[in-house]
Write a structure and sequence with these properties.
The complex is a heterodimer of chains A (259) and B (308).
Chain A (H helix, E strand, L loop, with lengths): L1 H16 L3 H8 L1 H11 L9 H35 L4 H4 L5 H34 L6 H32 L3 H15 L12 H13 L18 H25 L4
Chain B lengths: L5 E10 L2 E11 L2 E6 L6 H8 L7 E6 L2 E2 L11 E4 L11 H11 L4 H14 L15 H10 L8 E5 L7 H16 L3 E6 L2 H5 L4 E6 L2 E7 H8 L4 E6 L3 H10 L5 E4 L3 E6 L2 H13 L5 E5 L1 H14 L1
Parallel strand pairs in B: 3-8, 3-9, 6-7, 7-8
Antiparallel strand pairs in B: 1-2, 1-4, 4-5, 9-10, 11-13, 11-14, 12-13
Helix pairs in contact in B: 2-3, 7-10
Classes of the chains: A mainly alpha (259), B alpha/beta (308).
Chain lengths: 259, 308
């Protein structure tokens, strides 16, 4: 456990205190920036309800954009740089199984992801709640915000593990991650038809409905999924993805050469 | 007779079409062994194979009587390794870096702190403990790399070019440290492309060339083949003219070339010259040295000629 704890702490610090914090912070705070502009322009001065807009626009923005981008920012540079510079040698030549190192990196990156996401969602809620003081009571806001944060956390665990697998398995991890997280996740997850069932995003929307009570979401050109899966099925599928991606990472770490 | 801690049996590694190491069979037992060869000769490939970072295309490695395979990590509790590449933990402070590696080896928080402090002291880096690695000179980073091998009481040390970029004083203290470890009966495999560095600490060498083991044996036998050809030492200094004058007065140079910040000295008395440069380093007159070891090239020409 010492090894996992130490790597978790190192990985967390690297993601939130390192040179790459600013772009990650910018992504996390993008929804807050958008609602700040809305509030400045009087979007919730009476006609529209901020609480509904949080569910309709901000939640899908977080799931479609912030989630995949922040996962990539949290995981790929840490592992990619270790391999590119061969600094991974210092970890692989310790009497510690590689899976412990990777699990520590996954946990540290997830903590960083959750911290940044919490900051972003809190900022959004504060701005919207103040801009629309006649909206729902604080308890409703807190429940919805916390629910969204949990959904993001589950998504972060699944997509973070996926990014970890690509970072260990391939030198072109950024391309693979963009393809899978944005292409298969965000885009296929929004398409109508049965293909949508294969995308992790569909299951995130299942959690969004059950944990936040959000059903009506903005989905661009496409009709939102009329019957998202139940929370249990969603957790099962996303948990399965985490497990498969982590085991894939462990296997890839034992096979990939350090050059 | 007890088995050597490191055994390589017909070890080969190809990188696509390129041969990194070819059919190496060698037993590496206690004491210091120099792994000598020019750049690209297969030294780092061997080091990476021995530490499980790359897999062999053919052959096997036996560490402490057990075959090294992917997923086997237990031998690394007895092996310390210094990579040849620069240490790329730019944002970490020296102490944090060592503490992290100690904890990664299973040490608790308190123990890791103690071990990191001791390792820093042994390598003369205690004063730089709070310095970030990106703020350090190449020589200091090399010492941090060495410090991480001293965190635990290892039996085997695999040192890949540990003296690269070090100033004369660090060089001397590092060589002393390696000698000390060797005297304690540990197995040390030190890779270098500089014959003099290896010669300074051991008389047992493995000579690699184009991935093949060219020679194995006692230094003196091989040294006798080379003769007394002058060797070049590059001295980095802000006052190269003054340093050159001092060396000429001591009759330590048979030739010299100057540039604005460096001096190239040709000498047939390398040991004495290096001793003198160490003193000048203490006085702050020189910033670093590099040995252009043409004797190694002569040696390879000789051996390759003989084996061809």
């Amino acid at each position: 456990m010492t090894a996992i704890r130490s790597i978790r702490s190192w990985s967390f610090q690297r993601a939130v205190l390192g040179r790459r914090t600013l772009p990650a912070l910018a992504v996390a705070l993008l929804p807050a920036f958008i609602v700040a502009i809305g509030a400045w322009n009087g979007a919730w001065d009476g006609k529209r309800d901020a609480f509904d807009d949080f569910g309709f626009s901000i939640a899908p923005l977080c799931l479609y954009f912030v989630l995949p981008m922040l996962c990539m920012f949290s995981v790929l540079p840490t592992v990619g740089e270790l391999y590119e510079s061969s600094a991974i040698s210092y970890f692989w030549t310790r009497p510690t199984p590689r899976w412990k190192v990777l699990l520590g990196i996954h946990q540290g990156s997830l903590l960083a992801f959750l911290s940044l996401t919490a900051l972003g969602i809190t900022a959004v809620v504060l701005i919207m709640a103040f801009a629309n003081s006649n909206s729902n009571p604080p308890g409703d806001w807190m429940q919805r915000a916390f629910g969204l944060w949990l959904v993001m956390g589950v998504g972060g665990a699944a997509y973070g593990a996926t990014c970890l697998f690509f970072a260990v398995w391939s030198k072109r991890s950024a391309l693979w991650s963009i393809g899978v997280l944005i292409g298969w996740g965000a885009i296929v997850g929004a398409l109508p038809g049965s293909l949508r069932n294969t995308s992790p995003h569909r299951y995130l929307f299942g959690l969004l409905r059950d944990w936040c009570g959000i059903e009506n979401v903005k989905s661009g050109f496409f009709v939102p999924d009329p019957s998202p899966p139940s929370a249990w099925l969603s957790l099962l599928v996303l948990g399965g993805l985490v497990t498969i991606a982590l085991f894939g990472s462990f296997a890839a770490a034992n096979r990939r050469d350090v050059n | 007779m007890s088995q050597a801690p490191i055994r390589c049996l017909g070890l080969s590694r190809w990188y696509g079409e390129v041969q990194g190491l070819s059919g190496l069979t060698a037993d590496i037992g206690p004491g210091i062994v120099g792994l000598l060869g020019p750049n690209g000769s297969g030294k780092s490939t061997l080091m990476r194979l021995l530490t499980g970072q790359i897999r062999a295309s053919r052959g096997k490695i036996i560490l402490f009587g057990r075959e090294l395979k992917p997923g086997v990590w237990e031998p690394f509790s007895r092996i310390a390794y210094t990579p040849g590449d620069d240490v790329h933990f730019e944002d970490e402070r020296a102490f944090e870096f060592l503490e992290l590696l100690a904890r990664l080896s299973g040490e608790n928080a308190e123990g890791a702190k103690k071990r990191a402090q001791v390792a820093l002291e042994r390598t003369g880096m205690a004063e730089a403990r709070e310095k970030r690695l990106r703020e350090m000179s190449k020589g200091m980073r090399q010492r941090i790399k060495l410090a991480q091998t001293l965190l635990f009481d290892h039996e085997v040390f695999l040192l890949d070019e540990p003296l690269n970029g070090m100033d004369p004083i660090s060089r001397r203290t590092t060589l002393d440290l390696i000698r000390e470890l060797g005297k304690e009966g540990r197995t040390i495999l030190m890779a270098s492309h500089v014959l003099h560095d290896v010669e300074a600490i051991t008389d047992r060498i493995l000579l690699l060339h184009h991935g093949r083991l060219l020679a194995e044996g006692r230094m003196e036998e091989i040294r006798a083949l080379i003769g007394t050809r002058p060797r070049e030492v590059i001295v980095k200094s802000k006052i190269p003219q003054e340093v050159g004058k001092i060396l000429l007065e001591q009759d330590l140079a048979v030739g010299m070339r100057f540039s604005e910040t460096r001096l190239v000295v040709e000498t047939t008395r390398l040991e004495e010259l290096l001793g003198h440069l160490s003193n000048l380093g203490c006085e702050g007159k020189i910033e670093g040295i590099e040995i252009e070891d043409h004797s190694l090239e002569s040696l390879f020409e000789l051996l390759v000629g003989e084996t061809a």
